[in-house]
Amino acid sequence: MKPRFRRAVRGVRVAVVLGAGLLTAATPATAAGTGASGTPRPTVPLRVATYNIHAGAGQDQIFDLERTAEALRGLDADVIGLQEVDVHWGARSAFVDEAHALARELRMRVFFAPIYDLDPATPDGERRQFGVAVLSRHPVLGAENHEITRLSTQTPDPVPAPAPGFAEVVVDVRGAHVHVYTTHLDYRADPSVRQAQVADMLEVLAADRGPKVLVGDFNAEATAPELAPLWRELRDAAPGGGGTYPAVDPAKRIDLITVSPDITVTGARTVTSDASDHRPVVTDLRLRRRGH
């Protein structure tokens, strides 16, 4: 049975779009648990990645979406959370719909969650959008674009206010249903907006049942005080992973994959790539099947 989505916390409900060929559309952790007889519960594998694609521009600042697609293909991931995705945004990305272009190239389903949704640049143009996305090889049962606190970069004298761009999808992984969330937190040195965003995200997660994976560009390292509330509900899937930013000679690990306690982490790695100004992170997980 398909999950019935609640009204999101300050959320915006949207339809999932599936990619081409379909409808248009670490350190090992503890085991996932045992059954009543004491035998291990059946699990299924899931490889999850996160990647800030820098709107398709590499560390060299050259826009090359084919290079982005090749980097994503090399991750061989089942589900990928993307940040800094342009959809008809502007000249920097040739007004391309990057979300659907990448989905077609990789033959994956896609859900795009805009942070900004602006008027077209020309009277006959498409709406200009920028946000996050989720690519999935597995069926997507539902999706929502939630609002969290943001400090806009598109308005003068902005104040923190609810705005969309926190993506949630429910993925059916061979009978295991998992909530996957993709986020892009505030980049400013002042941590107050990120602190509010963490609280908002946790409120969304608290309304969902079952295994959860939260990925994204947190613009803060795992040890940052504003991220501390996350670790009461989730765990860092790659605590010993390498730096992710900048892509060349990274100094910080700010691109994170976090999981709920009922998910087993069997491996994690940061991948060397200059297809963006960030490096991608990949984790291998195991999920319990429903009914076990």
Descriptive notes:
The structure is a single chain. This protein is mainly beta and 292 residues long. It has one domain (12-288): Endonuclease/exonuclease/phosphatase (Deoxyribonuclease I, Chain A, 4-Layer Sandwich). The chain is built from 3 helices and 13 strands, in the order ββαβαβββββαβββββ. A 7-stranded mixed beta sheet has the order 1-6-7-8-9-11-10. 48% of the residues are buried. Residues 1-15 and 19-37 have low confidence and may be disordered.
The class by helix and strand makeup works out as mainly beta
Q: Could you state the order of secondary-structure elements as H and E?
A: EEHEHEEEEEHEEEEE
- The fraction of residues in strands falls at 25-35%
Mean of pLDDT: 89
Kindly provide the radius of gyration, computed on alpha-carbon positions and rounded to a whole number of angstroms. 18 Å
Number of strands: 13
CATH superfamily: Endonuclease/exonuclease/phosphatase
